[in-house]
Design the sequence.
């Protein structure tokens, strides 16, 4: 029998009731499986903040240790009735916290955070979660074992901070390590390089690591448990009567994730699309006794009557405009800019050019640094650099989007009726998505106008 890989995120690990629901879901599967867990809610952000504080003041190490001990102790006391299990679990947690403190002490003494050390430190959020969850399940009589990525090993390309799993090197390792007729709990978010160094799989990368394990195992499915009702036709906070999407193609799910739908990490689809493993999205808050999914992501491409399946948005896109007469045609300008940004570790989300302007779409966190980098290049062809930050990128997604006449017209007419100005439109880059930029203040009204046009 093929295994199922199930992923539980930080939102499933906030309080005692959440962990109790998680245990009920795992019991409902009633079969050997692999569970991938994220860090307890908020832990990763706390570790990021602490790394910077520790460089300046050694006392911050003990503050973080106390915070983690108190947090885990509370979770342990809440979830274990047996004093022996409480003590055993707390001892294991304290051992891992002690390991973490050694890395933080090293940061303090050298006054810097090397990439390989940062990746190790941030992996401890997941390591603590997996240890505690394994102990909770064992205390309830479930045959379960913790399996760390370095024990398999789950091999990556070695890039710190945003690694990619090497499936050829990892598949046999993973199958062998997770072959037992039991449940395995694996911390998400990281793998190891060929040299054994911990490498993170990108921020929010636990979804991707679960997908990677599912591919290595040739799993029956990847089941992602959330606290929402699967993919919806729009954000329920912004529209009335959003509709649940029962089925999505891999391409539709990938584009929705890329443009802000927070159901899946954007890279989750990547390992599974090539081998046809479906993704099942479940809602842990509405769980009764069935593990039936709320949304299924698979290879089938379905064109609906209204074409659009969902409208989503992201506030993480900013625009860097490089203006100059003929800048779009002048040889080498774009190459020099993109090379400089690449060397600085700045990802370019999209490039749109014309005769007089090159438009670079970047992440919000990179826009100011990118502005200075381009300015310092001193390229004579660029006469003006403009950074546009207060924008939102809105995407409409659905199979058949480029083939059905009039869909784009309906989208933009609905916005025009509300007096919403579109700053830029991109269509054709993806067969299933059209996206455009509006002022941040117009975002909510734009989403509501489009949703009303197509779904109400």
Sequence:
């Amino acid at each position: 029998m093929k295994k199922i890989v199930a992923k539980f995120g930080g939102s499933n690990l906030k309080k005692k009731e959440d962990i109790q629901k998680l245990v009920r879901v795992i019991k409902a599967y009633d079969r050997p499986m692999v569970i991938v867990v994220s860090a307890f809610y908020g832990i990763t952000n706390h570790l990021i903040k602490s790394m910077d504080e520790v460089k300046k003041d050694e006392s911050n190490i003990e503050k973080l240790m106390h915070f983690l001990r108190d947090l885990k102790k509370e979770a342990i006391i809440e979830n274990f009735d047996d004093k022996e299990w409480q003590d055993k679990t707390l001892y294991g947690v304290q051992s891992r916290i002690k390991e973490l403190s050694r890395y933080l002490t090293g940061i303090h003494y050298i006054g810097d955070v090397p990439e390989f050390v940062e990746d190790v430190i941030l992996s401890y959020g997941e390591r603590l979660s997996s240890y505690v969850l394994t102990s909770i399940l064992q205390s309830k009589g479930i045959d379960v074992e913790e399996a760390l990525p370095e024990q398999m090993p789950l091999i990556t390309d070695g890039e710190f901070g945003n690694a990619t799993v090497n499936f050829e090197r990892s598949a046999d390792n993973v199958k062998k390590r997770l072959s037992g007729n039991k449940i395995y709990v694996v911390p998400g978010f990281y793998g190891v390089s060929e040299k054994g160094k911990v490498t993170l799989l990108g921020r929010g990368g636990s979804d991707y690591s679960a997908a990677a394990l599912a591919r290595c195992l040739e799993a029956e499915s990847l089941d992602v448990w959330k606290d929402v009702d699967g993919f919806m036709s729009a954000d329920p906070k912004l529209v009335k009567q959003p509709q649940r999407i029962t089925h999505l193609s891999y391409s539709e799910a990938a584009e929705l994730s890329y443009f802000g739908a927070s159901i899946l990490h954007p890279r989750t689809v990547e390992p599974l699309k090539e081998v046809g493993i479906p993704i099942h999205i479940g809602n842990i808050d509405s769980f009764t006794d069935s593990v039936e999914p709320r949304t299924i992501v698979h290879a089938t491409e379905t064109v609906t009557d209204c074409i659009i399946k969902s409208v989503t948005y992201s506030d993480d896109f900013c625009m860097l405009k490089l203006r100059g007469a003929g800048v779009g045609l002048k040889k080498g300008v774009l190459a020099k800019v993109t090379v400089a940004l690449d060397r600085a570790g700045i990802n370019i989300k999209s490039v749109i050019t014309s005769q007089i302007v090159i438009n670079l779409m970047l992440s919000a966190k990179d826009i100011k640094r990118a502005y200075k980098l381009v300015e310092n290049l001193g390229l004579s062809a660029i006469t003006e650099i403009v950074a546009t930050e207060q924008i939102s990128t809105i995407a409409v997604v659905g199979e058949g989007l480029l083939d059905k006449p009039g869909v784009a017209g309906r989208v933009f007419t609905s916005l025009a009726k509300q007096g919403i100005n579109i700053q830029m439109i991109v269509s054709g880059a993806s067969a299933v998505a059209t996206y455009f930029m509006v002022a941040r203040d117009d975002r909510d009204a734009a989403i509501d106008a489009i949703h009303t046009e197509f779904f109400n």
Remarks:
- The CA atoms of residues 156 and 165 lie 4 Å apart.
- The chain is about 40% helix and 20% strand.
- The first helix runs from residue 16 to 29.
